[in-house]
Amino acid sequence: MMRTIFCFSIFVFLIAAPARAEEDESVWFKTYEQIDYSDLRKLIDEKQVDSARVLNSGWWVTIKTKDGKFFDTRVTPQTPIADHFYVAGIPVKIEHRNEDNDELPFWLDIFLNILPLLIFVVFFIFILWFSQKRGRKVQDECLDRAKEINDEFLDRQQEQFEAFIENFSSLLEKKDSNG
Q1: Beta carbons of 75 and 58 less than 8 angstroms apart
Q2: Is 98 helix (H, G, I), strand (E, B) or coil?
Q3: Which of 27-66 are b and which e, b meaning 16 or more Cβ less than 10 Å from the residue's Cβ?
Q4: H-helix or E-strand spanning residue 154
Q5: Which of 9, 55, 114, 146 has the greatest number of CB atoms lying within 10 Å of its CB?
Q6: Alpha carbon distance 167, 83 (integer Å)
């Protein structure tokens, strides 16, 4: 029993905790001082940019300067900013995600990962309950039919016994009257 519980808990843990391989670049996920597009182009042309990251389908650019400062710039997706970075030889990381809605709370993440298992377990319990209910109904019907058959048998046996006693008493009366 203990082994079953242990195996089940490991199974639930493996389903609920998907492996995540994320880089340790927590500095990229903060909001920094905003600069204009012209200032961004000026930093690119002066070779002051160390690396860049394009976010939200091209709406935001975060840069890291050679002196370690970070800046955010709002651009339109049609702006060829990635081309400017490539021409200048600056490494660019392009992420197509929305930072505001990307991360789910831990409890919701676990719930969404366990939900299919819960649905399966509830469905399985419903099937067991329904078949047990149906089995009880069939069992009750069979017991009622067996009771009817038993009552009929006992009635016939009672009638046969009464007929036997009646025949036996009439036979005894006949014997007493014959002598």
Answers
A1: yes
A2: coil
A3: ebeeeeeebeeeebeebbeeeebebbbbbeebebbbbbee
A4: helix 106-178
A5: 55
A6: 118
Determine the length of the chain: 179
- Identify residue 47 by its one-letter amino acid code: K
The span from the CA of 104 to the CA of 16, in Å, is 14
Q: Which of 60, 106, 54, 116 lies closest to 83 in space, CA to CA?
A: 54
Give the CA distances from residue 114 to residues 15, 104, 111, 128, 175, in Å, rounded to whole numbers and listed in that order. 7, 14, 5, 21, 89
Q: How many CA atoms lie within 13 A of 94 on its CB side?
A: 10
Strands of the sheet with 60-65, listed across from one edge: 33-34, 70-74, 60-65, 49-55, 92-94
Tokens of 100: 């505001």
In the chain, the DSSP E strands lie at: 33-34, 49-55, 60-65, 70-74, 92-94
Identify the DSSP state of 62: E
Amino acid at site 5: I
Tens digit of each residue's pLDDT (9 = 90 or more) over 95-146: 765 545 556 788 888 888 899 999 999 999 999 888 888 888 888 998 999 9
